Amino acid sequence: MLVINPQAADASTRFETPPRAAVYGTLLNFHGALAALGDSVNRPPLKAPPQAPVLYIKPRNTLAADGAAIVVPHGVAALEMGATLALVIGRTACRVSEADALDFVAGYAIANDVSVPHQPYYRPALRFKCRDGFCPIGAVVARDRILDPDDLTIRVEIDGVEVQRGNSSQLIRPVARLLAEVTEFMTLSPGDLLMVGVPEAAPLARAGQQVSIFIAGVGRLDNALIADPADEGVAA
Question: What domains sit in the chain, N to C, each tagged with a CATH number?
Answer without folding.
Answer: 2-227 (3.90.850.10)
